[in-house]
Design goal:
The complex is a heterodimer of chains A (117) and B (111).
Chain A lengths: L3 E4 L2 E4 L5 E7 L4 E9 L5 E8 L5 E2 L8 E7 L2 E6 L8 E9 L8 E2 L3 E5 L1
Chain B lengths: L4 E3 L2 E5 L4 E6 L7 E6 L6 E6 L5 E4 L2 E5 L5 E6 L8 E8 L6 E3 L3 E6 L1
Parallel strand pairs in B: 2-11
Antiparallel strand pairs in B: 1-3, 3-8, 4-5, 4-9, 6-7, 7-8, 9-10, 9-11
Classes of the chains: A mainly beta (117), B mainly beta (111).
Chain lengths: 117, 111
């Protein structure tokens, strides 16, 4: 149980285009989903917290108009990187906290590698 | 703010050796979590600790919640090549809903 998927697993796009990344909880309902960004050889950096049906809460320094988050259902959250630029290239990971699990136990997706040319 | 300090930053060991890594903080944590991240993958929860002094095992892995609630360690016995990866300690932010992660310990196992 407690499986989280992400799609796509990797994406290459041209500068200026927008990219959507999906995060799904497959066998549980996720009351909260988190979006992280990870640079090579670094730890996870929280970008935003997403609760179903409400606006995401963004961490300081993260542009909400740049990184659009939608959490329309208890099993799906999406992150859209708008007008992507090479500096947005990174590994994006989502995690989910669900009903029936301790709030402290996040289950992570496999990540999405974004490369912006 | 709260921080988690992991040591060592990296370890190079021989297959079969035991490994020990730890995580400390100047703040008290009520929960300690240990995750492993394989290259190009998301982190996977290994062990969750909820009580000071708690010692919990998961196969060859053993983790302990320090009695001061300011530290935790993770041991891996008889390491194998698939133990390679980054090990993160983590804990909930006080008064919030976020999880704080350490910088990670990178483990390399030579066969």
């Amino acid at each position: 149980g407690a499986v989280v998927s992400q799609h796509p697993s990797w994406v290459i796009c041209k500068s200026g285009t927008s990219v959507k990344i999906e995060c799904r909880s497959l066998d549980f309902q996720a009351t909260t989903m988190f979006w992280y960004r990870q640079f090579p050889k670094q730890s996870l950096m929280l970008m935003a917290t997403s609760n179903e049906g409400s606006k995401a809460t963004y961490e300081q320094g993260v542009e909400k108009d740049k990184f659009l988050i939608n959490h329309a259902s208890l099993t799906l959250s999406t992150l859209t990187v708008t007008s992507a630029h090479p500096e947005d290239s990174s590994f994006y990971i989502c995690s989910a906290v669900g009903q029936g699990y301790s709030y402290n136990e996040q289950f992570f997706g496999p990540g999405t590698r974004l490369t912006v040319l | 703010g709260q921080q988690l300090n992991q040591s060592p930053q990296s370890m190079f060991i021989q297959e079969g050796e035991d490994v020990s890594m730890n995580c400390t903080s100047s703040s008290i944590f009520n929960t300690w979590l240990w995750y492993k991240q394989d290259p190009g993958e998301g982190p996977v929860l290994l062990i969750a600790l909820y009580k000071a002094g708690e010692l919990t095992s998961n196969g060859r892995l053993t983790a302990q919640f320090g009695i001061t609630r300011k530290d935790s360690f993770l041991n891996i016995s008889a390491s194998i090549p698939s133990d390679v990866g980054i090990y993160f300690c983590a804990g909930p932010q006080a008064g919030g809903f976020k999880t704080i992660f350490g910088a990670g310990t990178r483990l390399f196992v030579k066969a």
